[in-house]
Amino acid sequence: MELRHLRYFVAVVQQKGFREASRFLHVSQPAISKTLTQLEEELGTRLFARSGRTVRLTPQGEVFYQETLKTLKQSDHAAEAAQRAARGEIGTLTLGFCSVATAGFLPGIVRQYKELLPGVRLLFRELNPPQQEAAFAQGEIDIGITRPPFAKKLASELHVKTILREPLLVAVPSNHPFTGRKIKIESLSEEPFILFHRDGAPTVFDAILGMCQKRDFAPKVEYESDMMQTTFTLVAGGQGVAIVPMCTLNLRPEGVRFLRLQPDEYKADLVLAWPKNTQSTVLHPFVDLMERERKEIGSQARRMLEAASHTTG
Q: Which residue range or ranges hold the HTH lysR-type domain (predicted)?
């Protein structure tokens, strides 16, 4: 049984005859008659009671007609959905993101994307960079906002665009003697350090240790925290200082002041990544939107950094 059989059947019913259906469909009357005879043979029952030129449905034909209308409607809906999906108007996009790093701009990007493509379902996965690597490898996310670098094999399979290059800042208690100064990292050699655990941000963790080693000292690590909020709680409580990416200003911690490092020799990159072999038609509008907004994201970050330079938490 083909959709063609069903469409011929409905046309005969609605046009009230084979001749009229032939004109409506622009198909020869013998072809329609032969097709519907085949349909009746396949079903094993008569759909029409024929009397001369008069055609009416049998009781079983009436039941089949009602069900056929549903089938054709669903078929049309399926075809339309496939066409809309091909145009990128509907579908699902799964986004991996680092919550603190994206808090300043992601809500606005999401609103714009949903206004552009309201039929697309956005799924969110809050994942740190190592978790996003694993999610990409398993095909669990379509696109990610994360930090490089990636494992060599995975890096060759991804498109990567830099969204933002963030300086590292020193978080100190608001009453710390260094407050209000630009400081060199070697000035922190005698300070107790609070580090965000390497498992959550290996690139930044390694960069901090590398900067200290370059200045011939090893940081005195008092605590390693699993959450950035915990890091700032300890800083505000006078338990040490922390070197953190600029994005952590989004947390607006109380009792904490942020200082600029001199010089700003390391930048923590935030990137947009997605598989090169993707077949998703709803992904590229998100990429294009991020590209258009990248300048504003940078401007917003600079304003936030300038404000933090003059405000005590």
A: 1-58
